[in-house]
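Structure (tokenized):
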């Protein structure tokens, strides 16, 4: 039994570097890894074996901005921790200055406490890489301001979560 299908709109992201703001990530991708291949030749034939995993190393997401500029403030504060624009000095030289991001798929049941997490990944060794330009357009008065943000990361770890399917039946 597979249970209810998961929806791609039902996810949760935890970004500790932006902890002062309750961030609602509007859209993103679920990060994954793929195995590299090791190729050997046996009697003239190519034979492939799985090798170490690799990943994209960059996680992108979009975040809607509000009139109090909380997202902009949090992103700029994180950027300022890494680089001082006035002096041109890089200030992020320690691995302890990096943070981890967690991305979860959520089920249809549960509550705001996070009891509906089905599975997730942890992006290890993250830092804010970029905040893209925002296109401004007077012809679209109902378009919302959205930040496209990129975080660099070193590795992916799968998080073990109890499956929602483990419901006691009476």
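Design, position by position:
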């Amino acid at each position: 039994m597979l249970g209810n299908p998961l929806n791609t709109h039902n996810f949760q992201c935890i970004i500790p570097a932006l902890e002062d703001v309750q961030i609602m990530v509007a859209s993103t991708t679920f990060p994954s890894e793929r195995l590299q291949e090791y190729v050997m030749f046996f009697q003239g034939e190519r034979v492939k074996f799985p090798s170490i995993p690799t990943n994209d190393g960059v996680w992108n997401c979009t975040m809607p901005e509000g009139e109090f500029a909380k997202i902009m403030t949090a992103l700029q504060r994180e950027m300022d921790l890494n680089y001082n624009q006035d002096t041109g000095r890089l200030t992020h030289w320690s691995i302890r200055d990096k943070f981890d991001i967690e991305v979860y798929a959520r089920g249809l049941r549960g509550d705001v406490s996070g009891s509906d997490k089905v599975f997730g990944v942890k992006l290890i060794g993250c830092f804010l890489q970029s905040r893209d330009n925002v296109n401004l357009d007077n012809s679209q008065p109902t378009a919302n301001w959205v930040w496209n943000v990129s975080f660099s990361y070193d590795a992916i770890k799968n998080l073990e979560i109890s499956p929602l399917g483990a419901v006691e039946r009476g």
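Reviewer-requested clarification: Residues 165-170 have pLDDT under 50 and may be disordered. The first strand starts at residue 11 and ends at 14.
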